[in-house]
Amino acid sequence: MLSYQHAYHAGNLADLHKHALLASMLAYLTAKPKPLSYLETHAGRGLYDLTSAEADKTGEAANGITRALSENWLPADHPLCQALDAVRAEYGATAYPGSPLIARHFLRPGDVTHLAELHPTEHQALSEITDFAHLHRQDGFQMAQAVCPPTPRRGLLLIDPSYEVKADYTAIPRHISKLARKWNIGVIVLWYPLLTDNRHAPMIQALRSDHPDALLSEVRFPPARAGHGMVGSGMFVLNPPYGSEAETRRIEALFARL
């Protein structure tokens, strides 16, 4: 299935959770002079306009990043704010970066990036802004398995599927275990939605059983609209960089006030 387009949801509360933690991890990893690899299995289009018809239709960005900035949820020097400021200086005041452009802000000339996106329209849009990356129009899990362990071996992989395919919930623990065996030093990051039907629960139980030392961060928030099934956001991180646990607790405290 290739119907999902993130433009309707860019900058929502789940993005805020995911991108704040991702930016913090990348800021730490790139503070050291050693080169790294950055990989994404489901990159999307990489850049969004929060005044688009899609964003207006759902209003999710208004209740997410726009509200967070107006109420100063994050300090101005937070890595996500730094990346957002840089992207808006380049693309305009209503731009919002997907994870590829958040990563671009931190990555250096010696770093290597691999981005997978299967949706033809999203892949085309991504190709227009990611001349810094190797683009793969293929299944993201296949790309990750083929590239890992990457060169340089130090690095981070973001797994951020749309979960359109319900089989993802049962397949992801197997994918991650295989990737972790091949790339035992890699920071492997999984984002997942918290849903009212708890379909994510068996997946997380399997992941925690297989990787008991991983970092788990979950936040909850009101549904975007009546009947909307997503009521939270989760991040599961193998080999979390130093400081990640403290950052997750700070972000979780912000969401606890909602």
TrEMBL record:
Keywords: Methyltransferase, RNA-binding, rRNA processing, S-adenosyl-L-methionine, Transferase. It is an enzyme of class 2 (transferase). InterPro entries: RlmJ, SAM-dependent_MTases_sf. The active site is at D160 (proton acceptor). Its EC number is 2.1.1.266. The record marks Y4 as: Interaction with substrate rRNA. SUPFAM superfamilies: S-adenosyl-L-methionine-dependent methyltransferases. It catalyses: adenosine(2030) in 23S rRNA + S-adenosyl-L-methionine = N(6)-methyladenosine(2030) in 23S rRNA + S-adenosyl-L-homocysteine + H(+). Pfam families: RsmJ. S-adenosyl-L-methionine binds at H19, H42, S99, E117, D139, G140, D160. It comes from the Bacteria. PANTHER family: RIBOSOMAL RNA LARGE SUBUNIT METHYLTRANSFERASE J. Belongs to the RlmJ family. Specifically methylates the adenine in position 2030 of 23S rRNA. Monomer. This is Ribosomal RNA large subunit methyltransferase J. It comes from Paracoccus methylovorus. The gene is rlmJ.
